[in-house]
Structures are given as C-alpha cells and as structure tokens.
Amino acid sequence: MTPSERRERAISSRLVSPSAVSVEPSKANDYNSFAEAYAAANETNLINAYYERPAMLALAGDVADRRILDAGCGSGSLFAALRDRGARVSGFDASAEMLRLARQRLGDGADLQVTDLADPLPYPDGTFDDVVASLVLHYLEDWGPALAELRRTLKPGGRLIASVDHPFAITLIHRDADPEAEYNYFDTTNWTVEWTMGGHTALVSRWNRPLHAMIEAFTGAGFRITAISEPEPDPAARELFPEAIAANPRFLCFLFFVLEAE
User: Fold this and answer.
1) Distance CA 223, CA 215 (A)
2) What's this model's pTM, rounded to 2 decimal places?
3) Coil, strand or helix: which one is 108?
C-alpha cells in the first residue's frame, strides 16, 4: 500500500462541541452506518493496526489453547490474530454490520454474537481464560455492570486485557481545541468527535474518566491490576508512517491494562 493509499484509509477526527450534538444524540456511535469504512481504516492505519492491536497482542502473550472472549470484536481483526496464535476465540459486538464483516473474515464457524457490553452477556460463569476488551469500555458511562459481567465469565485467575482512551490525552485534545473552555481532568465527561474516513463522516461519542476512577472500577469489580502500559508503536510503523513517527516517536493515545480476576 502506497503512502497516499494509507492516508486515504486514515481516520481524521474533529472535536464537536456538546451543543452541536445535543439535538440528535442517537446518531452517535451508529457503527452499522459506517462499518465498512471503519473496518478498512482499522485494517491498515497507524493508530489501530500499528499501535493498539500490536500492544494488545503483546500483553496477551502466549495464547495457544486459551479460551478467549473478544468483547466488542468489531470486524474481527484482533479475533483473527488471536486465533492465528492458537487461541479458541468467541466474540460479540453491538453492531450487526460489524459482525457481518467479521464473519466474512473469520468464516461461518466463528462463534460471534450480537450483544451489547452494557447488557448481560450470553456466556456461562467461568467460561474464559482471558477477555480482551479493545477500545470498548470508554463507550460506557458506568463501567460497573460491564466489568461485573466480564469478571463473571472469567475463570478464577483469568485475565482481562483492556485498552481505553488515555485520559490525559483526551484532556490535552480539549485544551488544544479551546484553551478557554472548562474541562476538568477529574470529571467523568462525555465527549463527541466527528470522524471522516473513506468519504464517510460519523459522530462518535465516548466517556472520558480519570485514571483513579478507572482503577477504582477495576478493583471494585474484583480485578487485581498486574500491568499498566503506555507502549511504543510497532517497529514496522517507522517505515510505513515515517513522517508521523519522526514527528512523534512516542505519543499518548490509549492506555492499556492487564487485570487478573481475584
């Protein structure tokens, strides 16, 4: 893929003021409407393909023969990578269209279900060795019920490997957009961006919370934190995205956790 083709598949992001989205909030996070454009960008862009996904796989380590739940699996990129490494993977997502794309990638035999992380999960207690939650928790205002359900599906000592928006990075985005605006790092705050990708635009709304609130949610749900990571991009990014990496060889974007079910 040429540099121009990679740029075409990038996701550009613009912060949207709360007043601009308050009229029709239901239009936010409609992944069914932009699934193909998002999946194409996710496949090859710097942030997902050469930063977030390699970091998740590195934290997961050796997954051969481990039973893994991919929570919010999207079009199946992480699911496929874990399966290629020998894991037995199940996945769910709230978007039926994203799961259609996942099934195209993974085959009709893949264990995929349309389920929202905010709802009770259709898996028995103690089913999984690991749960991976890639960039999905930050769509929820209240992490408590979702973490309790993920904890329930894990075997004792099982791991939750999660990535979320880095809270300080989101604070910097707001301060850069409007230095005069009141934005408090210590609040749990809803924020919305307009994504442009592959000729499509979409509103995406997420919840930002401070680090201490994340830790309190994890420990309150019965998890012990074994790792917190702020990784470097994959080494391949230096050749594929030379200008971006030259400008920012290390950057704040997502925050990664490895948690053990107590």
Assistant:
1) 9
2) 0.93
3) coil
